[in-house]
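User: Could you check the structure of this?
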Amino acid sequence: MQNAYYPGKKLFKGRGTDVKFREMLPLPNGTVIIYMEGVQWAWVPQNATQIIYLPNGTELQIPVSSNVITYINGFPYIKVYPNQPVEMVLYSNNVVHAFYIRLPHGPQNVNIVPGINSYSFFFAPSAPGNYTFHCAEYCGIGHSYMYGYLWVM
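Assistant: Sure, the predicted structure tokens are below.
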């Protein structure tokens, strides 16, 4: 199962040492996967695909970069629909970054170690609006300019 996520479940159950492992679930139908690179000092969305499951169970990955990724005044805007599932595949090749976005149902903070993919899965808010994401790990002199927007239409 290539595209999957771990739902928010407890790892431990009860008082004893019974371990309840988290099961891996397939991404929901309609999930937008955004591949984003963190560089000094910008978020650079590389491309975006949407996961669609056909009735026979076949998974299609449809390129949607031109519909999802845009830039305004040099900052990335990621356009999604209300309640749409979103997965960010985050990558850095130079220094440690942290992807931070505050959503109405709770903040997301994902550390990005150079050379290793990090993943952030969430459902877009139900209320339309702009939600700012930024780097939460000091990464150099231009750190304060490292932000973008999740635009819920």
